Amino acid sequence: CLAAAAGGGGAMRETLDKVVGAHKVVLFMKGTKDFPQCGFSHTVVQILRSLDVPFETLDVLANEALRQGLKEYSSWPTFPQLYIDGEFFGGCDITVEAYKSGELQETLEKAMCS
Amino acid sequence: MGVTKEDVESAIAAALSPSHLVVTDTSGGCGASYEIEVVSEKFEGKRLLERHRLVNTALAPHMAEIHAVSIKKALTPAQAQPQPEPAADKPQA
């Protein structure tokens, strides 16, 4: 899911560095963990739950500046966006694919131990 | 008017010269929504994230009008080949 818009701030990057650095696993999504507002976001929440890792979620629908800022930060046009260990991992399709191949579990394990 | 399936196909074809490309219109009434399978030599040596970025970049001019894109497959020609069975022709003792 995505919508068109432009803009973003300079201080946004710094803030986002802090946010994705503060937690091992951060998911920027539409809606919340308990009430996803989009099927793609729901899918990633389900995957993370099934892997039993602690993760933070932030609702981009509640913050338009965050939503636009993230698109530039990750150079990724859509949500959800999953960050592991401070690094952009991917959107829904990549997460699903990596889950199936075992690469996601591997990346998460590495992150949890680092 | 918006983006058509043909627009999506030609944008990807131009950017990635795919050997295989399937674009499926999956819009369920909420707007342009597509599923994409693409096989291209340009994916050689690239992680999945980078491959998806290439597709996203190709579609960037249309993204404003597209509701959702789902990249189901982004494979190299070698990966798209059915994997040969591991050789079971061990010499019999």
Explain what you see.
The complex is a heterodimer of chains A (114) and B (93). With 114 residues, chain A is of the alpha+beta class. Helices cover 49% and strands 18% of the residues of chain A. The longest helix of chain A is centred in the N-terminal third of the chain and has 12 residues, at 11-22. Chain B is 34% helix and 23% strand. Chain B is built from 3 helices and 3 strands, in the order H-E-E-H-E-H. In chain B, strands 1-2-3 form a 3-stranded mixed sheet. In chain B, a hairpin with a 7-residue loop joins strand 1 and strand 2.
Query: Which oligomeric state applies?
Result: heterodimer
Q: Specify Rg of chain B, calculated over alpha carbons.
A: 17 Å
Chain-averaged pLDDT of chain A: 90
Relative helix content of chain B: 25-40%
The rounded Rg of chain A comes to 13 Å
Arithmetic mean of pLDDT of chain B:
88
Helix content, binned percent of chain A: 40-55%
What's the order of the H and E elements of chain A?
HEEEHEHEEHH
Number of strands of chain B: 3
Write a concise synopsis of the structure shown.
The complex is a heterodimer of chains A (114) and B (93). Chain A is α+β, with helices and mostly antiparallel strands and 114 residues long.
Task: Give the SSE layout.
The complex is a heterodimer of chains A (114) and B (93).
Chain A: H1 11-22, E1 25-29, E2 31-32, E3 35-36, H2 39-50, E4 56-59, H3 64-74, E5 81-84, E6 87-90, H4 92-101, H5 103-113
Parallel strand pairs in A: 1-4
Antiparallel strand pairs in A: 1-5, 2-3, 5-6
Helix pairs in contact in A: 2-4
Chain B: H1 5-16, E1 20-25, E2 33-39, H2 48-63, E3 68-75, H3 77-80
Parallel strand pairs in B: 2-3
Antiparallel strand pairs in B: 1-2
Protein name (chain B): BolA-like protein
Pfam family, one (chain B): BolA
InterPro entries (chain B): BOL2, BolA, BolA-like_sf
